[in-house]
Amino acid sequence: MTSLDTRLFGFLASAWGGLLIYFYHSTRIRGYLDIGFHHFILVGGIGMLILGIYSMINPKSTRPKDEAPGSCDHDHDHDHDHKDHCESCNHDHEEGHGPFVTILLTLIPLTLAMTYTKDKLSTGGMAKKGLYEKPALTNADIPPFTREDLEKNVPKNEHGEFQLRMISAYYAAGDREIQDIFDGLPVELEGRIAPEQINNESGDRLRIFRSIITCCAADLQIVGVSLEFPEGAKRPQVEDWVKAGGTLTFETVDGDVLPLLKIREVIPAEEPYSEFRRRQ
Fold this sequence. Notes:
Elements: H1 3-26, H2 38-57, H3 98-116, H4 123-128, H5 147-153, E1 162-163, H6 166-172, H7 176-182, E2 185-195, E3 206-213, E4 221-228, E5 241-253, E6 256-268, E7 276-278
Helix pairs in contact: 1-2, 1-3
């Protein structure tokens, strides 16, 4: 590898390091990775940047100083097949497309992805991650849960509505005992708005959802609750971040029990730095 090769690949490492640092400081990373792992991106970016800068200012060639490019220690002015002695020749026979093409093949797709990626899932993408899936029935051996436990552990808003986690409201539909406690409960749910595709022939319903994550967007799961609005009520826009207060009920659709929030009021809310919640 020549000094030029070393400098070029140092430039490539610096570009990757700069990209990671940019993702960290621009907050675009929040759409891909749980907040608990963000500092690893910053540290990795700084490390790659240092490595790249060092390679560019202090390149080392693996070719001997007194050897011209493409030379070797034998006389080529003789009649034999050059392939026969390649293994005994101590110079490099360059193959492939070279470092410039490698860098272009890396940076061009990377630049295009950085420019045109929207950092969010489409409705179809969210559907594949569980937005419209039914809650699974559970027979887990867990301690009994009572209304007294709810009163003790879950805060209320100024309207007396329980500020329930979305995942709790969602999975309550899969547990008969929890359904009995939550059915008719005044609750407030916070999350993002999406179109509703279940039991929405009239087109009057929307869905509120949250994203559940363990590590990164690859293991993302989305849970949501259908919203039913009273006649004449103001509806939020799709993708708005809101707090929705009302009465939590359950409905049966095609034999599946699903959570339904009958809306009292929907108000805009401040979107958190990261909408992801850790899987608990």
